[in-house]
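[step 3/7] inverse_fold.run input=structure_tokens len=167
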């Protein structure tokens, strides 16, 4: 199973505030939809609840410490990332996307095979953060720079990192 983390983060590693995104980047939302459609996506319960409802054409895996939480029909809840990974491996899932929030990113970033990061050229205030990307572990393999425009509030770059394999 290939594990791919997808996130949009500011220069100061802020990813959100009050359980919401803090910028309007239409291109980032389109890229997120294109990459994750048809796949399993793993997130924390607060991230799931911030969506309002399950995203179409994706199977949601929700990590929660709340034993009473019930995942919607066709989606799954687990008490740990480890249990979710075991389930995904047994189910034969090819690609799993990690979509947040901050605590889930911190727990999984170094377990992933690839990072799909939208680097936002801004330094907003926030209360959720992305962990530092350790360049001893990750190598940048792709970058697309984009200016701000009428649909994208800030300049941003789509950056792909692949895990450096030791030979």
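[step 3/7] decode complete -> sequence:
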């Amino acid at each position: 199973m290939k594990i791919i983390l997808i996130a949009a983060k500011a220069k100061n590693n802020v990813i959100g505030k009050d359980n919401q995104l803090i910028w309007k980047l239409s291109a980032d939302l389109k890229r997120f939809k294109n990459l994750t459609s048809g796949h399993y996506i793993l997130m924390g319960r607060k991230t799931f609840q911030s969506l309002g409802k399950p995203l179409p054409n994706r199977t949601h895996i929700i990590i929660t410490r709340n034993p009473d939480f019930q995942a919607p029909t066709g989606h799954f809840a687990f008490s740990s990332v480890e249990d979710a990974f075991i389930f995904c491996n047994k189910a034969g899932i090819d690609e799993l996307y990690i979509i947040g929030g901050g605590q889930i990113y911190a727990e999984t970033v170094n377990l992933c095979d690839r990072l799909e990061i939208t680097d936002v050229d801004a330094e907003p205030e926030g209360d959720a953060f992305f962990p530092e990307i350790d360049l001893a572990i990750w190598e940048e393999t792709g970058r697309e720079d984009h200016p701000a425009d009428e649909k994208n509030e800030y300049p941003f770059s789509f950056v792909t990192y692949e895990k450096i394999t030791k030979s």
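[step 4/7] annotate
The radius of gyration is 16 Å.
The first helix runs from residue 26 to 36.
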